[in-house]
Amino acid sequence: MIRLILMLILVWATAVQSEIVKVEKRGVADDIIPCEWDNKDGVPCVTITKPNSNPVSARIMPTTIVTRQEIEKNNIVDIKTALSYVNNLSVVQSGPTGQQTSVFMRGSNSNHTLVLLNGIAINDQSSTNGAYDFGQDFTSNLQRIEVYKGSAGAHFGGDAVGGAINLVTDIDWDDKITVGGANGVRSFEVNKSTRINDWDIGVKGGLHESQTQSALAGGSDQDGAENMSLALTIKKWFNHHIQFRTNLFARNTYADLDGHSLALQEGYDGDNTLYALQTGLDFETRKTKNYITVHTHAYERDYISPNELDIYDSNAYVVRSEHKNLVSEKFSYGLGFEYKVDEATFTNEGSYNSSLDGDYTNTGLFANMSYAVSSSLFTTLHYRSDSNDITNSNDTYKIGLLKEHLLPDLHITLSHSTGFKNPSLYELFGADNFGFQGNINLNAEQSETNEMGIRFKGFSVNLFETNIMDPITYSWPTYVNGTGTVKQSGIELGWSYSDDVNSFNWHGTSLSSKSVTGTDQLRRPEWSTGFNYQRVLDQGLSLVTNYNFVGEHFDIHNSNWSTIRMPELHMLDVGITKNYYGLDIGFKINNLLDESYQAPHGFSQDGRNLGLIIKSRF
Questions:
Q1: DSSP-derived 3-state class of residue 275
Q2: Which H or E run contains 81?
């Protein structure tokens, strides 16, 4: 209660404002509009194409976008921290920076969140359940992060049962160098853009090193992490209709790890690398937009422990194309296809031996349309058919309705959507020395989401219900499709306010996530809330405050494997920045209340720490 009172006093005493950067977007293909960047006058703006290309559908699907300005304003260095600000995402990292991190979106499993890079799926198929490790990615090479909630198979294809997270890279014309540091933490970021003979080129990336404490609670060693991230984007408009683009994305994270007990601390390391290359062409007219993208990515993961080296590798090859047509002011549609090949291998040897060598291909055909019934009533329909050479066919759809101004400033959205989760390659083809053998007869998990959203001025309410059928479970000696239904439901609340000096964003969630037996699922708190609160002060000063409350939830005891209840958690971060002759100098105190906590149980997290940051534009 004392902490909550302190939060209210802090809110009353200070206020926030999000930095708003207004940039003219590129218009239709025949009208190139110059940007308003101070240091790049006359350079045409670059559009970021969302995978969810239907503008009405984008307003129906609950979406949160973490912009580059918000990342910098809050001094965010890794994706784990950025996602912790998003409503109804439970982000769990097994120790300090660089350790394995899971995201539970709206109470779904960690492998029910599809991760995309510029609209192309990049989940790692060498992981045993297909889950993405969010602890390996940092923000220095990203332009923004898009979070889409709810079953989204018709938008993105397989694995988007709980939703999808899209990592976006692009040219950033705001050239800068940023240096930061704290006790045991150092970071360096750089962004440079240029135009050479009508070729637009952007390079951004960074280095991050941290060594703060042991991953295991009570451990004596300091488990550090080193990350290198890079993104290169090249674009050229050959004329007002045709654009060439290519993106190179790379990151490597080397982290010190611990075993499963305090006796196993030294000699454990992880080396995690991701490479991705995307190349494509865009063809635009006043009413149509067409693109084709060729994509490939590769994961190389090595885990070193005493007398053992485990190697995990996966590769993917993708071709995606889409045609979008604005037929009239009332009607638009899109048609497209996506072809993807996934391959994965791994071998680990020691007291436990397991292996994988498998692949599958997937072909997806999709279509969408939107129709304006009136000036305030809109409908959307999305449909996608996926054919997998192992798991056969899966069809998904989404129906949406948007009613604006039901009452003055009151808007309502309704939607029904479906999704599916393909078995991972390990679940299909894996094996181990205890008799496990993959099951190629597995079916995909299926999901349905019903949702209603209400918007009134700065207030928002989302009510949702998701049911997951045919859940994949382990039953020795293989994985099987279980019976029963996993049920998730909840209410998401939000309120935003801003003026010339202040900005305030609050969110809160009540969540129910039940297994097929009706018990609460682990690491999904029933209650959570938080706010982002900023204020532009006098004399070039700006204040940033972030608060997150995580309610009680169930977890597994790290040593005896019993189910235990974890206590509630209050996290408060405060930062202040001053612009001094064009140089931004600031500091940020993370975990100001110095909460000592484990998340998940048995894994320690950082206490209070002070970080410094210096940013120079050139």
A1: strand
A2: helix 79-83
